[in-house]
């Protein structure tokens, strides 16, 4: 009876250890998948950055999106300037009248 208890105890320990190892393998697989995804993203972003640098070296905007954002900001700045000028004119006209 003593041997069967020991054997059962060892089998239980083996099963528990096997479960723990399987869990660690699954966790490692998830980390590897994440690492591969992040490496791919990094390669894509490096490629994009290289293209942006090449465009700028050739006197072009880095990207169409960046150019459009820049133009929107210029328009906004110009509109603010016009608004300030109009406000000054209104104040000037009120002062004169």
- Summing up helix and strand content along with how strands pair, one would put the structural category as mainly alpha
Shape: elongated
Mean of pLDDT: 93
DSSP helical segment count: 2
Report low-confidence residues grouped into runs of 5 or more.
none
State the distance separating the first and last CA atoms: 114 Å
Number of domains: 2
Kindly state the percentage of residues in helix.
Answer: over 70%
Write the layout of secondary structure elements.
Elements: H1 2-57, H2 64-96
Structural write-up:
The protein is mostly helical and 97 residues long. The chain folds into two domains: 1-60; 63-97. 92% of the residues lie in helices and 0% in strands. It has two helices and no strands. The relative contact order is 0.04.
Any descriptors?
97 residues, mainly alpha, 2 domains, 2 helices
Describe what is shown at a glance.
With 97 residues, the protein is an all-alpha fold. It has two helices and no strands. It folds into two domains: 1-60; 63-97.
